[in-house]
Amino acid sequence: MGAYILRRLLLIVPTLLGIMIINFTLTQFVPGGPIEQIIAQMEGQGDVFQGIAGGGDVGERAQGFGDDRYVGARGLPPEFIAELEREFGFDKPPLERFLTMMWNYIRFDFGQSYFRSVAVIDLVLEKMPVSITLGLWSTLIAYLVSIPLGIRKAVKDGTPFDTWTSGAIIVGYAIPGFLFAVLLLVLFAGGSYFQWFPLRGLTSDNFDELSLLGKIGDYFWHITLPVLATTISSFATLTLLTKNSFLDEIRKQYVVTAKAKGLAESRILYGHVFRNAMLIVIAGFPAMFIGVFFGASIIIETIFSLDGLGRLGFEAAVARDYPVIFATLYVFGLIGLLVGLISDLTYVLVDPRIDFESRET
Questions:
Q1: Which regions span the lipid bilayer (predicted)?
Q2: The whole model's pTM is what?
Q3: Burial, 23: exposed, middle or buried (Cβ in 10 Å; 0-12, 13-18, 19+)?
């Protein structure tokens, strides 16, 4: 197992490098970089994309004024443009910039945001609690509900209980998360009906003044609606996956033999079937957690006014804040690859008969 872990760790290096190379290359061809953003703001356009979409007028501005490479650089001296390039490091060739960036990232030196004058690592650490809250609690609740429900559905396969629970979770899966979030706000956060939960934020303004129990209660009071909105679509896939996995195992010969010996149903399910059936469910944990942690939180954070990594990444992409974009991509890519390795090790923990080394030889 040690050799397998070492090989997987070594494989992380080229994989992560490939991710960074592809994304760095793509950004070289995307219009509206950080210098264009500054020029657009100085020209009063507000946003570089307005200038790009402006058509002929903006094209005329770029002719004969400032630097021809930058749309809208009217009246700006070339010396000023050159200083901006030097400040952002664009006076160097792309290959040199990429190698310098990767050398810094290997040492976990992510630099500073272009537009916030704050270290990128400080920005990420500041936004991390919100995303951890959504990702961790949503995944935990989904597993705590879906696994027992999926087992019960497998045992009661074809019964009315199986039918109506399948209908309920499919309806939940079909409802978009943002629409369910808006519904929760209208019903329970001061909309047209009740005001049981706060509208925004992760904690109250007087959070530091509360007792320990008060802080815990305030925290859960604030995260209830966002976590529900994030979790609603997770039940269907995980529940049906658990059900089908258990059904496949229940029909095997060793289960029939165990029943013939008179073993209790609970012992058969949780002593024999559970270990084999849960392998495929465990395999989906990393993808589910990473998906909720990095993807589904953008809209939910916006609706509930939560300042997390989702909004940080979106704002950085719009502003072309490259240090934030590439640093978060590097960290999240590294986390995703490590979580994949942890998932494989969990296989062995659940079923010691699995040996990845012998399968590769």
A1: 9-26, 132-151, 163-189, 219-242, 277-304, 324-350
A2: 0.70
A3: middle
